[in-house]
Amino acid sequence: MFATISLILNVLILTSAYKSYENYKVYKAVPESDTQLQILTDLKKSGFDLWTDLPMIGKDVRIMVSPSQENDFVDYMKSVGLDIAVAITNVQSLINDQLKPSTTQRSSLGSLTWTEYHTLEKIHAWLDELETMYPNIVSTVTIGNGTEGKAIKGVIIDYKSGRKENPLIGMIEGGIHAREWISPATVTGIIKEFLTSDNTDVRFMAEAFVWHIFPVVNPDGYAYTFTNNRMWRKNRNTLYSTTCGIDDDLSNGIDLNRNFNYVWNTVGASSNPCDQTFAGPSAGSEPETQAIMNYVQKIKGTANMIYYIAFHSYSQMVLIPYSHVGGADVLQVENYGDLYEIAQRGLDKLTEKYGTQYVAGTSLDILYAVTGSSFDWAKGVAKIPIVYLFELRDVGDYGFLLPPNQIIPNNEEIMACLIEMDKTTRNLGYYYSGAANVAASAIVIFTFVLAFVY
Fold this sequence. Notes:
Blueprint: H1 2-13, E1 25-29, H2 34-42, E2 49-50, E3 61-65, H3 67-79, E4 84-88, H4 91-98, E5 108-109, E6 112-113, H5 120-133, E7 138-145, E8 151-157, E9 168-174, H6 182-196, H7 200-208, E10 209-214, H8 219-227, H9 287-300, E11 304-313, E12 317-319, H10 336-354, E13 359-361, H11 363-366, H12 374-380, E14 386-392, H13 407-427, H14 430-433, H15 442-453
Parallel strand pairs: 9-10, 9-11, 11-14, 12-13
Antiparallel strand pairs: 1-3, 1-4, 2-3, 5-6, 7-8, 8-10, 12-14
């Protein structure tokens, strides 16, 4: 009965204003030359939605194609000698499937489940509910609002409320790109584990820190994916609206993960409001961006902030700062070696769970160059020692439209990864000295060696 009611409500959400992707296809191509790369990149000018933000030579590029575009697209690809294949036959079919709760597994805490994807209102109501369920541990916090006024809401989890010592702080961010629904589902799953798990490692990680966790930091955009356009990515700032040709709504928004004040709009970002990676008129121009930056600086000034972790989809990667450097230049991050070690040990545990394969590295080395991202800002400006961006499941079979029956296994493998990452972080001494003098501590190094020898 609950599943039936839920499905009816989801259908009612899809009003006449909701954009249909019936018979839209996603094609994949691999450019093998600069010429082919430019051809694929230029498709954005003709109104095609590239699911790959920045195409690269030798790497898979995904292009969403409407029924009206398909014949011209296929003919053009043939004329320029680019091999293409259909990756998704009907985008709307996958969207419809995402709105159907999974019946294969069950997981819930209070009113929220992890067998389906939830609206912003549902997530916010659940956060308030947690404050009532765990009054001495959980408190809700609103750090700002989107351009349409929707709250950027999260929870603070503190098992030692009122502690006087300088606490360890971790911050987790989700939903900065609106269409990446698995991101808020993962972040809410982490909250659930921190509150309910009886695993001793999870308990230690949950209780050693004061956690500041925000499932949806782009509330206006996320809500828009339920009411108007499932594939919406940006926020909903309409100040820079302009003519985009095939769809003028494309200009109504700014990519928040290109808007942060660190190497802003240098590479992997756009000055064109019609682009998915539009970086905005200036660094930190958006209220959502400002809210995150102000909040991080505020809490960092009062405690020992160790973690900043952002969750995105898709690609199955753990990205290490900075996203615009690669090769030997990764050493611009003073503790890159530690960050890679922490990530790789975590990914080994992740893969053990269900065999899912992730890779780790800077975005430039393993994905594409980016500037103005939240996690790069957290490292480069806020100077937080342990910073990552997760690109969650999958590698393109479903892309942004991951089925609900993958939420729970995704969350389980991510939790296994985070536990191992935290163990390694602790063994490397970051709990005790931050990033400042870890390398100089012989005691810490000896502890680290013993931990992995025995």
